[in-house]
Amino acid sequence: MRARPGVINQLAVAEVLARRLWSYPRGPGDADVLPRQLKDTVSRALSGRLLSRPALTLFIDGFGITADDSDRLWRLWEGSGAISVLSGPRAMGPDAEGHLRTALGPRRHQSVSLHDHVHVGADRRLARSRTLQVIEALAPHVDRIPYLYDTNHLALEVGQGCRAVSGNLYQIGAGVFMTEIVLAKVLGLAETTTLEYWTTYRYPGDPLDPHEREYRRAVMGRLENFDIRVEFHPDALPASLWWASWDGVEGEVLQQELVALDSQHSVHRYLRFISKTVVGFYWTW
C-alpha cells in the first residue's frame, strides 16, 4: 500500500479494524472479516457521511484511543448528527484577504483543533466565549499568534498556554482588527501547545443588529476538529435558531439548517474539517 503525504490510506485503516475484530469478534463472521469488507465503513466515517455507534466503538478499540479522548469522541457523537466536512468558496473578499495576508505575512502556525464555547446572557446579548485551541508551529521560534476579530466591542483575556496579549492593535481592513497572543512558551518547528482564552463582548444591545444575534467563525485556509457550542440563559431563549454557512464575512447565508436547543439550553456542532468558509449559528428572538 503506497502512502501519500496528507492522505489517509483507507485500506490500512480497514486492516487495523479487521485485526481488532479477528481478536475480539462481536458477532458471527467477525473473526473472518476481510479488510476490504470494511472499506465502506471507513470511507463513510472519514468523509463524515456516517459514523454509527458500533463503528465508533471499533475505531476507539482498534486504535487504542485513550479514555479521555474516547469520552470526548462520544460527547461529540451524541451532540451532532454527523461528523462532517465543509468547504466553502471563501472566508472573505479578495481585497480583504489580500490586506490580511500582507499584514500577517507567511504562516507560522496552524490550528490542530479549535473549540468555541459561547454564552448568551439574560439580556439577550452575547456575553462571553471560551476558546480552546491546539496549535502547531510551522516555523522555528514561534512566540505569538494573531488574534483576529470583526468588532471593537470586546475584551480579550488569556489563560493556559498564553503569557499576555500584545499591546499592538491593528485595523487591517474595513471592520477587521488584529492583535497578538503572546505564548507562554516559544515553539520550535512542529512543536504544539494548547491555548485557552476568553472573549467578553460589549455590544450595545441593538435587537435589529444581526451581528448581535449570531456567532460565526471564519476560516481562510484549512481547519480540522472544529467544535462550536452556544448556550443561552434560561431567561433568554431564542424563538428560532439556525446552523448556517455564509458567503464570506460580508456575504449572505449560503446554507442553513433549523436546529433545536438541548436540555442545557445549548446547541452544538462538530466539524472534522472546514476550509475557506464562514460557519456558525444565528437566531431570532
Walkthrough of the structure:
- This protein has helices at residues 10-23, 39-47, 53-62, 67-79, 94-104; strands at residues 84-87, 109-120, 126-137, 142-149, 154-158, 162-165, 170-173, 176-187, 192-201, 214-232, 240-246, 253-258, 266-284.
- With 285 residues, it is of the alpha+beta class.
- The chain has two domains: 10-79, no CATH class; 86-284, Immunoglobulin-like, CATH 2.60.40.
- The strands form two sheets. Strands 1, 2, 3, 5, 9, 10, 11, 12 and 13 form a nine-stranded mixed sheet that branches. Strands 4, 6, 7 and 8 form a four-stranded antiparallel sheet that branches.
- The radius of gyration is 21 Å and the shape is globular.
List keywords for this structure.
alpha+beta, Immunoglobulin-like, nine-stranded mixed beta sheet, four-stranded antiparallel beta sheet
Gross CATH architecture of the largest domain: Sandwich
Summed up, the helix count is 5
Q: Which term fits the overall shape?
A: globular
Termini separation: 55 Å
Helix/strand structural class: alpha+beta
- Averaged pLDDT, please? 85
CATH topology of the largest domain: Immunoglobulin-like
Oligomer: single chain
Query: Measured on Cα atoms, how large is the radius of gyration?
Result: 21 Å
Helical content stands at 10-25%
